[in-house]
Structures are given as structure tokens and as C-alpha cells.
Design goal:
alpha/beta, Spore Coat Polysaccharide Biosynthesis Protein SpsA, Chain A, 3-stranded antiparallel sheet, 11 strands, 22% strand, MobA-like NTP transferase domain-containing protein, MobA-like_NTP_Trfase
């Protein structure tokens, strides 16, 4: 079992949290919470964001953490606030309402099997286009194919505090794959994510 942290600090042009965008009468973040619960591998669900989120969805999560700076700052602060260094932490964004519980479960099981400190899903463009043809994503073209990344990360909480300048650069360049490649100085994506063979999407 893992803990999950939803990053919900992004705001729209109206200044309101994007997590509270309504889709079919429900807040967008609620679909993400449901998927995490449905996965069967998530114990506690936490949300980091503004106080307005606590008022709206605080009753359906296990903990709320007030936003404390940029993305990396929020992750590091949340790890301390949660205080559980025994179980992995699954970090995701609030703007993935199409995520399904089985995709979360497969991802967590794969990362756990490999005993990873950090895990990040890679999805073949053809799978994404087949299931969600109208969704715009950032892609990287490699000799093995064209890939995009998921909005979810598997983390060993014990390594978060050792985050370096490279981690900050990778977050800043998350929408600019070529710059990400320069940070790593290696080929980022070498194969399609194995847990997407069933066309599930995260």
C-alpha cells in the first residue's frame, strides 16, 4: 500500500483552483480521488492546495496540506507533513479526471516490483491517440517511437529531501522535453510503458 498526494495548487485565469473545475456536476479533483481509492493500492489520500479546496473536498480525503510555494517545495513540505517514511508516496496532479483505478494499480505494482526510488510512466503516442484523440500532450520522438509521460510519480519519501538543482530544472522543463534531455544528458525514453498494454491511461 502507498500514500497518495494530489497537487492541486494550479489556478485558472479566474484565480480559482483548476481542481475545482466542474465536470458533469462534480469537481475535477473528485475523479482523481475516486481513481486513487478504486486502485486498491492507495491507503491515504492527501491534497496540497489553497484553503478553498479544504472547504470543498476536505471531507473526502485523509489530509489537507496548505500550499507552500512551488511544486518541489510543496512535495518536500508535504512529505514532512505526512510523516510516513515507510511507505512510498504516489504524487499526481488534479487535472487528470480520466485516470482509472486499474492504471494506478498497475503503475504502483510495477514500481514496487522494481524497488524504485522514483518511477514515472511512459505512454506510447499511438495508445494515447487511440483512446483520447482530442487530448493534447507533449511528446518526445525517439528511434523506438513517440512517447508522452503521465501526470503521476512514484516516490520513495526518503529521497525527496535530497532533491537537487536537477530536480528543480526537470520540473521547470517538464513541458520542454529537449531541455529535459539536456539536464539528464541521456536518452529519456527507451520503451513504451509496459502497464499501458491494456490501453489504460494515466
Amino acid at each position: 500500500m502507498v500514500n497518495a498526494l494530489i497537487l492541486a495548487g494550479d489556478k485558472g485565469e479566474d484565480g480559482k483552483p483548476k481542481a475545482l473545475l466542474e465536470i458533469k456536476g462534480r469537481f475535477m479533483i473528485e475523479y482523481v480521488i475516486d481513481a486513487l481509492r478504486d486502485s486498491g493500492v492507495v491507503d491515504n489520500v492527501y491534497v496540497v492546495g489553497d484553503e478553498i479546496l479544504k472547504d470543498k473536498i476536505g471531507h473526502v480525503v485523509d489530509g489537507f496540506i496548505k500550499s507552500n510555494g512551488e511544486m518541489l517545495d510543496n512535495i518536500k513540505y508535504s512529505v514532512k507533513s505526512i510523516g510516513d517514511y515507510e511507505r512510498p508516496l504516489l504524487v499526481c496532479t488534479s487535472d487528470i479526471p480520466l485516470i482509472k483505478g486499474d492504471a494506478v494499480r498497475d503503475f504502483v505494482l510495477e514500481c514496487s516490483k522494481e524497488n524504485l526510488d522514483v518511477g514515472y510512466p511512459i505512454i506510447d503516442k499511438s495508445l494515447n491517440d487511440e483512446k483520447y484523440p482530442d487530448v493534447k500532450r507533449t511528446y518526445v520522438k525517439m528511434k523506438e517511437g513517440t512517447f508522452t509521460g503521465g501526470n503521476i510519480v512514484f516516490l520513495n519519501p526518503n529521497v525527496v529531501e535530497r532533491a537537487t538543482k536537477k530536480a528543480e530544472e526537470l520540473i521547470a522543463f517538464r513541458k520542454k522535453p529537449l531541455k529535459m534531455g539536456k539536464v539528464f544528458r541521456i536518452i529519456l525514453f527507451t520503451k513504451a510503458c509496459p502497464w499501458h498494454s491494456n490501453n489504460s491511461c494515466c
